[in-house]
Amino acid sequence: MWFSGWRVLKEGLTGNKGWRPHWRDPDPKPVYDAVIIGGGGHGLATAYYLAAEHDMTNIAVLEKGYFGGGNVGRNTTIVRANYNLPGNSEFYSHSLKLWEGLEQELNFNTMFSQRGVLNLFHSDGQRDYAARRGNSMISQGDDAVLLDREGVRSMVPYLDFDNGRFPIYGGLFHPRGGTARHDAVAWGFARGADQRGVDLIQNCEVTGIDIQNGKVTGVQTSRGAIRAKKVAIVVAGRSSQVAAMAGMRLPIESHVLQAFVTEGLKPCIDQVVTFGMGHFYISQSDKGGLVFGGDLDFYASYAARGNLPMQEHVMEAAMTLMPMIGKARVLRSWGGIMDMSPDGSPVIDRTGVEGLYLNCGWCYGGFKAVPGSGFALAHLMATGRPHGSAARLRLDRFETGYGLMDEEGTGAQHNLH
Amino acid sequence: MRLPCPICGTRDRREFYYQGAASMLERPVSGELDAWHAYVHVRDNPAGRTRDLWHHEAGCGAWVIVERDTVTHEVFGAVLVEDADAD
């Protein structure tokens, strides 16, 4: 089933009776060439690129719940490539390029909107850092514009520029960044993978990983055993539990990150605006809701809901930055479970078990990584070599100390990111 | 979330700084790289009961081991580190 303007018009005139389910609902087969554990954005993207780029179609995605029911449906939908350090820089740059062609490639409207991401700064020192980061982004081949105070004012005049504690000195603007409809990204990859023959299996919980003589041989699931010589763990939020099935302990601590949305309002915030000093960022969805969030609650949690102190902190930061937001009413809030790695950067790598691959540690940045992560993991699984964009996302960097990607410069330890 | 400080009683979560898993009290005795890597980076990260270290920095200043559930946020109890850790 192909989407087009003509098709939408025709269906609209004929009672929308021609639409069909976007993917099959197959029972699991006893054997696949590869099995992907986890039907979130990253898992579905991995399956899609395995089929589309490497002709591996005898594969399955196993999802405990429903597709897109985890973090890919619980984030604040921001897409950007404004990283500073080698490793992250080329990875997110590649991911953003994939985003830019994604709707055409998938024939699916992900509502990708390159409305720009504006990072504010509030001192001379922060301006120097913003200039340096902008230069890193430009060196990587992406875009960055250093704005002075008046440049920011012309773009977002409603901010409190003369705040006593955080007066606005300027901002680093990343025009190609933006937002996308998060559910649609999961659905688009699912549909694309299914069209290429991938079996997408929901309500199928993996309960064990079979390993013989150091090689993976398959998985045990709530719907029976499945044999496969290649198995990928793509379950950020539950990585420690699934990796434990293969006898692994990971450098991951799970934390809750909250987000909020207001009632629908008329268009007022045209970009993604981030206020790093207050740990606050905001954008406006196409429905009109202001979508915003803050920092972690900062204690290990799998509750998928947070506590009131961080909610209060986020609201205070919002009022500090843009007092006009005070009249908007918060509609709902939610929490996602973050795979926090010691250096704040992700892992796409092999494991000590032959044929077993690991994709984890996305911290609070997993959504924008969805295409790049799927592309790189598919490349690693199909060719046995890491993709150039993800060659530094190694699991052993914590043990060796080589290639750590500590963007904030705080040290590679838990609770510092 | 409120945490039971053994000295001050039940206090607001905002008075405490979260350090991480209480496994950090078990410092390796040898200089083996594996042991230190496990100590600094690797975590059990359980979905369920856990023991972690909190610093009552805006209260009495004590280091506290809190036993709680990471899925429900239920708190079962707390002891002082100095009572639990001979070091």
UniProtKB/TrEMBL annotation, chain A:
Which keywords belong to this entry? Answer: Cytoplasm, Nucleotide-binding, Oxidoreductase
A Pfam family per the record: DAO
> What EC number(s) does this enzyme carry?
1.5.3.1
Domain FAD dependent oxidoreductase spans what residues? 33-380
| GO biological-process terms attached to the record | tetrahydrofolate metabolic process
This protein's record includes keyword Transcription: no
PANTHER family in the record: FAD-DEPENDENT OXIDOREDUCTASE DOMAIN-CONTAINING PROTEIN 1, SARCOSINE DEHYDROGENASE-RELATED
Protein name from the UniProt record: Sarcosine oxidase subunit beta
Per the UniProt entry, what species is this protein from, by scientific name?
A: Tropicibacter naphthalenivorans
Q: What is the lineage of its organism?
A: Bacteria, Pseudomonadati, Pseudomonadota, Alphaproteobacteria, Rhodobacterales
UniProtKB/TrEMBL annotation, chain B:
Q: Which Pfam families match?
A: SoxD
What InterPro entries does the record tag this protein with? SoxD (IPR006279), SoxD_sf (IPR038561)
What are the GO MF terms of this UniProt record?
sarcosine oxidase activity
In terms of domain of life, where is this protein from?
Bacteria
GO BP: any one term: tetrahydrofolate metabolic process
Write the protein's name. Sarcosine oxidase, delta subunit family
